[in-house]
Amino acid sequence: MKGTEFDEVAFFRAIADSEARALLIGRRALVVLGLPVLTADYDFWIHIDDIERFNAAAAPFDLAPSRTPTEARARGRYTLENDEHVDVLVARAVPTTEGLRVAFEDVWNRRRSHALTSAVDVVLPSRADLILTKRFASRPKDLEDIRSLELLDTGDQT
Asked: What number of CA atoms fall less than 13 Å from residue 130's CA on the CB side?
């Protein structure tokens, strides 16, 4: 079975062009920041009202949603899949394992753009907020990622 040719730069450009409020989270965000971690998927936290816009941006890449927008809103998450896998979080707020409520709007307001190429930016949470997203599950790899993020000197202290 031959996999599809996935153009990551074009994918990120399509998301940016869609104007969906979409934050890259997860290990792919760490890769964008220059950390040497391995990951096979993409993780996004999007505004609950932007599901259709985000899905439309992903459609040219043959990424099929696992749930309708209504179902996704009710469950708070869904996936887009083909040979690639995109986990999409659509909750207005998510608690950390310590019980701290992290609101999308607050994280969105503190977002940072990072150049993927000279023509394409990727939107990430601030470093502090990215650490909070790693505390949603606090799996062993999340705890390692938090340690790496805490050591990262980006000048982004928020």
From this structure: 31
What span, in angstroms and rounded, lies between the C-alpha atoms of 127 and 150?
A: 8
CA atoms of 5 and 9, how far apart (whole Å): 12
Distance CA 78, CA 71 (A): 9
Contact 80, 63 (CB under 8 A): yes
Q: Which domains does the chain have, with CATH numbers?
A: 8-150 (3.30.460.40)
The single residue listed with the structure tokens 């009710």 is 74
Kindly report, residue by residue over 37-81, the tens digit of the pLDDT.
Answer: 988 899 999 999 999 999 999 999 999 999 999 999 999 999 999
Computed from CA positions of residues 68, 69, 75, 80, in that sequence, does the dihedral angle turn out positive or negative?
Answer: positive
Cβ neighbours of 62 (radius 10 Å): 13
Q: Identity (one letter) of the amino acid at 16?
A: A
Residue 61 CB contacts under 8 Å (≥ 6 apart), including other chains: 6, 7, 10, 11, 14, 82, 84
Q: Which two structure tokens, joined as six digits, stand for 95?
A: 């608690």
